[in-house]
Amino acid sequence: MQLFFEPRSVVLIGVSRQSGPGTYNNLEMMARYGYQGRIYVVHPKVPEILGHKTYPRVADLPVTPDLAIISVGRDRVLPVFEECAQKGIRRVIVISQGFADADERGKELQRQLMEMAAKHGVRVVGPNTMGILNAFTGFSTAFVDTVRDPSPPPFSIIAQSGVFQVGYESFTGSIGKAIDVGNAGDVDFIDALEYLENDPQTRLIAIHMEGMRRGGELLKVAERIARKKPIIVLKTGRSAAGARAALSHTGSLVGEDSVFDAAFARAGIVRVRNMIELRAACRAFRHFRSLKGPRVGVVTATGACGIMTADACEDYGLELAPLPEKIREELELAHIAWHHLHNPVDLWPLGMVTGSFIEVFKRAVRGLIEDSGVDAVIGIGPALSSPLHADLDLIAAGRELNRSNPGHKPIALWLYGGDELAQERTLGPEPDLACFGSIDEAVMGLAAFLRYQKLQAEKESGESTFTPDAFPSGHSSHFPLVSPDGILVGEAAFEILKQYGIPQAPGKLAPDAESACAFAGEAGYPVVLKIISPQWLHKSDLGGIRLHITTELELRKAHGDLTELFRQQTPDGILEGILVQKEIQGTEILMGIKKDPQFGPILVVGMGGIYAEVFKDISRSLVPVTLADAERMLGSLHIFPILKGIRGQKGASLDKLAQTIVSLSRLALDYPEIGEMDLNPVLANAEGCWCVDCRILIDRGSGGSTL
Amino acid sequence: MQLFFEPRSVVLIGVSRQSGPGTYNNLEMMARYGYQGRIYVVHPKVPEILGHKTYPRVADLPVTPDLAIISVGRDRVLPVFEECAQKGIRRVIVISQGFADADERGKELQRQLMEMAAKHGVRVVGPNTMGILNAFTGFSTAFVDTVRDPSPPPFSIIAQSGVFQVGYESFTGSIGKAIDVGNAGDVDFIDALEYLENDPQTRLIAIHMEGMRRGGELLKVAERIARKKPIIVLKTGRSAAGARAALSHTGSLVGEDSVFDAAFARAGIVRVRNMIELRAACRAFRHFRSLKGPRVGVVTATGACGIMTADACEDYGLELAPLPEKIREELELAHIAWHHLHNPVDLWPLGMVTGSFIEVFKRAVRGLIEDSGVDAVIGIGPALSSPLHADLDLIAAGRELNRSNPGHKPIALWLYGGDELAQERTLGPEPDLACFGSIDEAVMGLAAFLRYQKLQAEKESGESTFTPDAFPSGHSSHFPLVSPDGILVGEAAFEILKQYGIPQAPGKLAPDAESACAFAGEAGYPVVLKIISPQWLHKSDLGGIRLHITTELELRKAHGDLTELFRQQTPDGILEGILVQKEIQGTEILMGIKKDPQFGPILVVGMGGIYAEVFKDISRSLVPVTLADAERMLGSLHIFPILKGIRGQKGASLDKLAQTIVSLSRLALDYPEIGEMDLNPVLANAEGCWCVDCRILIDRGSGGSTL
């Protein structure tokens, strides 16, 4: 990868013979950006472009350059690529569009291109890319005139678009290194991440992702890197409409969006929702080094902004710290009898009375930084261009405060009325201190940084892990699940649960009313009857369930009714039997497994019953799931208070639920051929939890785990 | 009010004798801002400040100025105010802090000040205010040096803080007129709105609100004005912590936040959540004139931004329009065989092939504007400072397109890499075309503007109205509700429901088991038993309910058990009886009324049962509620699909539910003494809905409606 970012020589093929405004000549841009290596140009017709002698063909080059940059029309890409390979060039960037991003023929061309690359041992970035940017060496392959940062930050971005190089001010702020992986035909997120992992000029990584392949592997690599270098990801195509656009744009596979949340959390990388949060997070991660908790102290020139900050903290999961007594004594009591300080600290009256807002600002921020109950400080004040307010230099004040900030507590400034980008430039690479574009961005940035700290803390405590090997199988020898139609229901499904100790409601598959009554007499009423048939997977929709059966008389009648109903509705169906089950009172929980093509089995737990699809109160996790993970999953549900027990009602056994989740995770690891599995409902009460219904769909295309 | 905004002469009392950097001298600021009227200065000690001769006392002034501006310490405000009144001054701005914004003594001082003002017929802005800004006449009372816009927009802001005048670039963009009502001791939102209503220099109004008084009246005034001039409101103190800060900051009353949502919607004014959305909405409302629906066409220089736009549209409730065939034919087929256009329209390949991105951009936007299936256009492209990209002037392109935009369809531009504020300045007051700071802000702005259009359309169609008189009472003569302890339960509560035709589950208050069995025998099993007692309002928490009673034997036993339970638990309680009710199967709905101190009765409908407090799936509305309002309330619930009927299950009778809501609204209007009323649950099924339990708390402090 290094030769992509630091080539000593490059050859450009497909350079326009025109240059100047409106021509997007990448040779011209490369020269302007400041590339210091040798540039060769291949052009079949003109002898010279922009002072560079051209060569008619790649074969004519006097040397073998480190890197070729191809921007010819898509139909000429393959022959040109072959020429490069023949010449011995081992790194190629294919800027040209019209491959997997376009039509069927484009897909085929890309396939052939990649085959050719593999054959010759050539690594390819693209096609459909803007390529590479390296502000440290002044190397850019962009066809757009990009401004080079003279002192680049240790921040790199991997994107699926060149727009993050062109419009960096709008997305992330200044960039040190960037790669647009484009269609990611060869070099993909994993390759780029592995390069940045050991790149001393990179300390922070942002990813713009529309889709991905090799999801499981990517997570492993990302998890390893994120322990050392934070990774922020903007995964777009969240919406249904967005996902459609993504498919046609890059030819990537876009999964169900919430699965990405689970996947990124598992890898310890921080997801942001949109470009506003991306910008805020990049700012925060760039400057901040440590954040121990969510308790924020706010110092503001105006009470109105204090209230807005409180609102933002609630929106993004931060908290207002109690005001340290020391600040109250120093500032309030000493100066204005009637002024009551609290957090947010509204300082203006004190500034007016003492004659120096800056002085009281510094004392208040100092007091907050020094207080053990405060994790971070947000400072709010005016940024006024008038010479009459030259005394209000809050950036200078922040810098002064920051000189004695041994705990590296983040100080986030929002200076209203000013130009945030200019403030950021003034600030430079100052650690622990940053300026944001709004109150909400300051809070978003801190919150994103806190999410990163929390994810990493979970990793370090060993609470969350990514190593399936650490989880002994619950099942000694793996027999593949088989079923003629790929569906397991009834006894067959319950049999699997039993192997993993997942409790089931006592029940019996009763071929006739006699055996049903015998079971109910033993287990006790009330009982439930259910039609068990591969044709009746959605049996409740079809009326195949009878509840609250309290007497033998009712039971006999219901058994007959259901059998008849089955015959009427599905004369050719296979009736495995009528299941008679003891009726359990409890909260309806849904558990399940769904295999994701990228990340393998996803374990799902949430609210069951009729409201399941209405509230979608669901927590998802990649497997394996530890007991701590399972508890976290349960704790994140909206219905958690009901499971814990509210309003004098007994809740459910959280221990039993968590154990069941862990068992299900083991099952998912052992049986990678499970495509989907529903335990719905699992009834949970104070005594335990019992699966009442289970179905398994076997994904017959899959032999092993995709992880 | 006009004299506050356009005084011909002012007197300043409390001016610092110092001027220059760091002194916050409001005389100096007023002169710099460009005030053209006469300025008088009262100062007891120095003969002259900044070239203005001073007068020792207000009484010494040679004339009676239109307006006095007081910024002395709080203890000197009252005597100075008295002097002003004696002099005949009828408008006073009290900038000084330390009144209701501070301690008890401050509250008392403010009360005395207002009493004095009323006695003398003086109108007061403040205390605790930055006062007035009028960029048209160059008048500002701020003690901060504010930049005057040479061509002010027809946009005014009413705030509870001066920060919106000082930091306007960060909040709303340029301002024509502003008033900081501060503690709103006298002049409040209503006064300010009524002035702006008839102000020809105001076409758009923004409000920053921490709390309010006279809520009902404010809504009436705002509703009237919003039909002509859009009103955007940033109501802060959304969070619990924020609300606490608000109370101590302005001494205003802050209500439960979601009630404000209902109130603002009722008044037809648009609420924004935070300063980012405020800025976006101000931008949109300033430029846009018409938006017929949510269907957006997106034209972008990069596919990545198209996907982000799709995400943002889903987040904020806009939709992607289908791509007009005409664009496909004109652009796609004519130029690149493999390029497949859809919406968002990714134009870059076409720009490269045709040699002019601007041309294809214009043709695509033109095609979208002209298509009847598109309501608004979002255009995305680079804003590059390089002379090599001088051809990419998208603002000029937008302006050109806008010349032929007869339907006034909004064109929202987001130009990455550029300075949004500079773009806005370049654009000037151009209608129908605006530049935004991010994709999300463009979408937020359009979405807020659409909310305004929808609210106004509902008003025009008469679907939503604010006139209680239009609703005939269901009750011919109003007898005040009475109860010795202020609580009505059981028969007494059901009696009220009956008067309004609100259906109840058939039931009978049974003093003994005999009468309970008689009722059940007639009405049919299963039945439910409930303890009815003012001491057992939360009877389900106490175990005072028995469900699923299917036989007379069970009924007798349960009746006895409950009676005994009551005696044990509350030996001194009043047992009105044991209610025996027919058990109805249906979805549990909660309905209720809660009187808000500002807005009068708030009608609530939502999910009932055990999950009610977990999911808080609730819709709120001010009364009166029309049938259309009631349907909208039901439609906004998450459980609406269940009420409509999902997965082959019968839903609930939406008609009966809506009728019941309207009846409850009438009841609320007729009985303003109701403080709280719970119908919980109302059981709804396909045949109808029935209230199963009802309790009423009488607010004995209130005799009439607060509306």
Commentary on this structure:
2 copies of one chain form a homodimer. With 707 residues, chain A is of the alpha/beta class. Chain A has 4 domains: 2-272, 3-Layer(aba) Sandwich (Rossmann fold), CATH 3.40.50; 285-460, Succinyl-CoA synthetase domains (Rossmann fold); 467-505 and 585-707, ATP-grasp fold, B domain (D-amino Acid Aminotransferase, Chain A, domain 1); 506-582, ATP-grasp fold, A domain (Dna Ligase, domain 1). Chain A is built from 25 helices and 31 strands. In chain A, strands 3-4-2-1-5-6-7 form a 7-stranded mixed β-sheet, covered by helices on one side. Chain A has a 7-stranded mixed β-sheet with strand order 9-8-11-10-12-13-14, with helices on both faces. Mean pLDDT of chain A is 90; it is low at 246-255, 466-473 and 703-707. Chains A and B meet through α2, α5, α6, α9 and α12 of A and α2, α5, α6, α9 and α11 of B.
Helices and strands, with pairings:
The structure is a homodimer of 707-residue chains.
Chain A: H1 2-5, E1 9-13, H2 26-33, E2 38-42, E3 48-49, E4 52-55, E5 67-70, H3 74-87, E6 91-94, H4 104-120, E7 123-125, E8 131-134, E9 139-140, E10 155-159, H5 163-166, H6 168-171, E11 177-180, H7 189-197, E12 204-209, H8 215-226, E13 231-235, H9 240-250, H10 257-267, E14 270-272, H11 275-287, E15 295-300, H12 303-316, E16 319-320, H13 325-335, E17 345-346, H14 348-354, H15 357-370, E18 376-382, H16 394-402, E19 411-416, H17 420-427, E20 433-436, H18 439-460, E21 487-489, H19 490-499, E22 507-510, H20 513-523, E23 527-532, E24 545-549, H21 552-569, E25 577-582, E26 587-596, E27 600-607, H22 612-615, E28 618-622, H23 627-635, H24 640-644, H25 654-670, E29 674-685, E30 688-691, E31 694-698
Parallel strand pairs in A: 1-2, 1-5, 2-4, 5-6, 6-7, 10-11, 10-12, 12-13, 13-14, 15-16, 15-17, 15-18, 18-19, 19-20
Antiparallel strand pairs in A: 3-4, 8-9, 8-11, 21-31, 22-25, 23-24, 23-25, 26-27, 26-29, 27-28, 29-30, 29-31
